[in-house]
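In response to reviewer comment 3 from the previous cycle, which asked for concrete evidence that the modeling workflow produces usable outputs, we include below a single protein chain processed end to end. The sequence was submitted unchanged, and the resulting structure tokens are shown without manual editing.
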Amino acid sequence: MRRYSMFTLALAATLLPVTAIAQSVPEQLTDSLSVNGQAMPVEEVTATPLDGIYQVRLTSGESFYSNADGSHFVVGDLYENSDNGLVNLTEQARNQERVAAIGAVPQSERIIFRGVDKPKATVTVFTDTSCPYCSRLHETVPELNERGIAVHYLAFPRGGMQSEAARVMQQVWCADNPSEAMTAAKQGEALSGSASCDNPVASQYDLGLEMGVQGTPAIILPDGEMVPGFVPPERLTAMLGLDDE
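The workflow returned the following structure tokens.
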């Protein structure tokens, strides 16, 4: 029979409750976190590199930091002071969440421009057919495809789901050939098709809001980084690490 020293047994007795408490904090915060007596819509609670500090992500996509009992909050980004400079850990977490959220969107609900050859990289773009900079970006899509960059469009009507742009984008997604309809709409052509089919425009708009999209175009890189606004092909190529290929 294996023997344990009194020191080992005492140490185990000390550590086990602490470990159990540490492991239960995220669950406790998820279940009990409230403000002014109102339960908060907590999606997930995760530990951070700081002892006793946890990242809280709400169902709305917003996040902040809390101590173990939820009595104190910190709103803002958490940085690591590494040998290579400051690293934004909060943004890294957002990027991972964006990758997962984008990955959950079925290919059938995207409008895809991929070119002839197999893409070297894929960017996802929240777009609005009434947005001038979205049209400008769309004009560069053939060049992006030639550079090996596929473009996957998701809908984000800046004016909300009651806007004219939302109706046009529903027409685009309902069209027999959505990619042709997208190009026509961005060239200012009026679409005659229906906007009443089962389409993902509303759900994609909600997804964009959850991911922090505030304007269009909003380009999501493969690692989840969000780049707002128009980006010229040569710069986007460099950002994807394809300029040396």
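Residues 80 and 86 are 6 Å apart (CA to CA). We consider this sufficient to address the reviewer's concern, and the full set will be provided in the supplementary archive.
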